[in-house]
């Protein structure tokens, strides 16, 4: 049984035994979950947060039955893939199941590079795509901090932020202005003899997230113009999108 320590003690133990690169969120007032019931989780102070009991129950049931590798036959793997595919456009019918966002994005990167035969990636400024080395390379959030080198195959587009970004609410058409930047970056890269294999977008910056599905499933009022979707689609690049449940 876990000892129920106060959060200051947990922080001290964390500083001692957990690597500092795994930075603690909300350092000033860290979040410490201590229990869950029904659809809620509760922190140390008794504050209530949403939880999802159906997911926990299903995961527990599956573990009780069998926990195995996805490299052997199992009905739950194929049934789940089939159900997922039924919620997506016809062309998106093949799944890979991974253990983390980093693993999923690393796989997306290799798939795109194999398929395209090119190395280059367009990424949004400030984006974070995961903690494995392939993704640190394409995450300005990390490589702009100094220690890592900005690789020549990485092209950074401005984040479509209408509060603090390059084009703001007072711009007549920020969506097209941001999309034009991406087009320019691709053209410049082509002029320099480079070829883009992938456009990576974190959910936080949904710029081209609408391009993931047809019809678009994540409409964002600023990026919803059909002409933008059509013209960016015309570039025939591969997009990946990370959705972070927290
Ligand atoms: C946008 C985004 N992409 C990828 C990741 C990496 O996911 P994971 O921590 O599951 O490897 C995160 C994690 O914070 C994220 O916020």
From TrEMBL:
Keyword terms of this UniProt record: Mitochondrion, Pyridoxal phosphate
Catalytic activities: phosphoethanolamine + H2O = acetaldehyde + NH4(+) + phosphate
E.C. number: 4.2.3.2
Chief place of localization: mitochondrion
Cofactors: pyridoxal 5'-phosphate
GO CC terms, sorted: mitochondrion
InterPro entries: Aminotrans_3, PyrdxlP-dep_Trfase, PyrdxlP-dep_Trfase_major, PyrdxlP-dep_Trfase_small
Compartment(s) where it occurs, according to its Swiss-Prot or TrEMBL record: Mitochondrion
GO molecular function annotations of the record: ethanolamine-phosphate phospho-lyase activity; pyridoxal phosphate binding; transaminase activity
PANTHER family: ETHANOLAMINE-PHOSPHATE PHOSPHO-LYASE (PTHR45688:SF1), PTHR45688
Reported function: Catalyzes the pyridoxal-phosphate-dependent breakdown of phosphoethanolamine, converting it to ammonia, inorganic phosphate and acetaldehyde.
Family per similarity comment: Belongs to the class-III pyridoxal-phosphate-dependent aminotransferase family.
Name of the protein described by the UniProt record: Ethanolamine-phosphate phospho-lyase
Provenance organism: Monodelphis domestica
């Amino acid at each position: 049984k876990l000892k129920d320590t106060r959060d200051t003690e947990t922080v001290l133990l964390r500083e001692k035994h957990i690597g500092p690169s795994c930075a603690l969120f909300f350092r000033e007032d860290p979040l410490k979950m201590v229990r869950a019931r029904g659809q809620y989780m509760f922190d140390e102070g008794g504050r209530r947060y949403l939880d999802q009991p159906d997911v926990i129950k299903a995961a527990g049931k599956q573990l009780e039955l069998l926990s195995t590798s996805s490299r052997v036959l199992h009905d739950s793997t194929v049934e789940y893939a089939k159900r997922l595919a039924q919620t997506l456009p016809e062309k998106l019918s093949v799944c890979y199941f991974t253990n983390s966002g980093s693993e999923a994005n690393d796989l997306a990167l290799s798939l795109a590079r194999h398929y395209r035969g090119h190395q280059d990636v367009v990424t949004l400024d400030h984006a974070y795509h995961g903690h494995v080395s392939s993704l640190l390379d394409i995450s300005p959030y990390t490589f702009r901090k100094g220690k890592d080198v900005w690789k020549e195959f990485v092209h950074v587009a401005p984040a479509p932020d209408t509060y603090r970004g390059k084009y703001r609410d007072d711009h007549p058409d920020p969506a097209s202005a941001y999309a034009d930047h991406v087009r320019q970056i691709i053209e410049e890269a082509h002029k320099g003899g480079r070829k883009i294999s992938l456009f990576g977008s974190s959910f936080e910056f949904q710029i081209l997230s609408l391009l993931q599905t047809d019809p678009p499933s994540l409409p964002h009022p600023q990026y919803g113009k059909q002409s933008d979707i059509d013209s960016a689609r015309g570039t025939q690049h591969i997009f990946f999108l990370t959705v972070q449940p927290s």
